[in-house]
Amino acid sequence: MAATDKLVVKTRQILAHFSDALWVVENPATSLMWMREASGGLGADSVVTSYCCWGTLFRKDTRLANNFGLSLPRCPGAPTCPAMIGQRHVEWSQRGCGGAVPRFKTRHELHAIPAPLVEEIERQLTVALAARTGSRESGPSPEPR
User: Fold this and answer.
1) Boundaries of every domain in the chain
2) Per-residue confidence at 100, pLDDT binned at 50, 70, 90?
3) I want to staple 138 with a disulfide (CB 3.0 to 4.6 A). Which of 3, 41, 52, 127 is the partner?
4) pTM to 2 decimals?
């Protein structure tokens, strides 16, 4: 964990150096990083979202620490979540098979942040930056998939 702590401390130093910048730091929601002393409360202003809200067939909760009030949905569960069959998500967020329809996933599939989520973060960053600078470069919010 020493190497991880060094990386987190360096991340905090970079954020402090660019104190006027808007930023987002992503890590799994259940990661111990958020509770370690090295995080220095990095996750205090954060939001948890579920990948199934962004088009995947599996639920994977991720925490996004940020400094601009990011607002994202979390899996509503059955029967509302379209990625669920009955009480289970169609797939699991693990490399092995699991879920209502078992399928092996590559490491890339599990670690890639869904493109619609990245686009929504970018949209909210653009709105926050426009509000900060007095610009009007914002558009409507697309619905999560």
Assistant:
1) 22-31+44-133
2) low
3) 127
4) 0.82
